[in-house]
Amino acid sequence: MQQWTLTVATMLLLGGCIVPAHADILFLTGNNPQPDEQNVLYNAAGDINGPAFTIEGHLNQTDTSVSFTSSSLLLASGGIGQATIKACTTLDPASCGTPATFTDLLAFLSVPPGGVFTDFIFNLDAVADGSLTVTVTEGNGSTQAATLNNLDQNGQNFYTVVAINGQDIRSVLLNSTVGIVDATQIRLSGVVEGTSVVPEPASIFLLGSVLSGLMIWKRKRSSTV
User: Fold this and answer.
1) Are residues 124 and 41 in the same domain?
2) Among 95, 113, 115, 142, whose CB has the most other CB atoms within 10 angstroms?
3) Which pTM does this prediction carry?
């Protein structure tokens, strides 16, 4: 509790405005760095840059894949300091259309699937003043949302979403009331990659029992023929 109090105090000193917490998720305005942050980049051979409705980048330290989905065509490009997601009106990356904007963006860890994280920072460039609704799906499947009414067409729009009290984040959905030109400087921390489901011992025992039973039944049936 003391550590979290200090973190909140630091955020306030940095100019972050705390939107009331929903359960164990805090929605913050401003750029509020967290420990062990990783940048989302789009310059690796395996990245899916688009234009597409779903694009895929990677984290610069763990190389975990991060996907972004929208109802608009998206185009991603760039490494550290230049990583950008913008909208397209055509499938030709050379002629995306001007101006092209999006109003929704869903972010989640995709490879391996099922991963979670504890912090999501992003910067939006808006065409007009408006509001942004951020919906978080937690690791346990619950959803929490907050509407931030300070989306500004003049300047940067940094936001930070932080999970506290042992909670984690499975996905973040952004919905804006105005067009977004691009999303930049996206960072995640507290990343835990998804893992394959390992059968429980009881399930393995049950499967073995079924197979053994089938083998015994087959032998008895063969002996009676």
Assistant:
1) yes
2) 115
3) 0.78
AA identity, residue 162: V
Q: Which residue type occupies 184?
A: T
Contact 180, 130 (CB under 8 A): no
- Report in angstroms the alpha-carbon separations of 7 from 3, 51, 118, 159: 6, 39, 14, 16
Do 47 and 139 reside in the same domain of the chain? yes
Range(s) of the domain holding residue 212: 200-225
Report which residue type is found at 216: I
Place of tokens 């399930």: 203
Burial class (CB in 10 A: 0-12, 13-18, 19+), 186: buried
Mark whether 61 and 150 lie in a shared domain.
yes
**pLDDT (tens digit, 9 = 90+) per residue, 85-136?**
999 988 888 777 677 899 999 999 998 788 999 999 999 999 999 999 999 9
- The amino acid at 8: V
Instruction: Specify which residues 122 forms β-bridges with.
Output: 159
Tally of domains within the chain: 2
Residues 69 and 125 in one domain: yes
Q: Which residues pair with 111 in a beta bridge?
A: 65
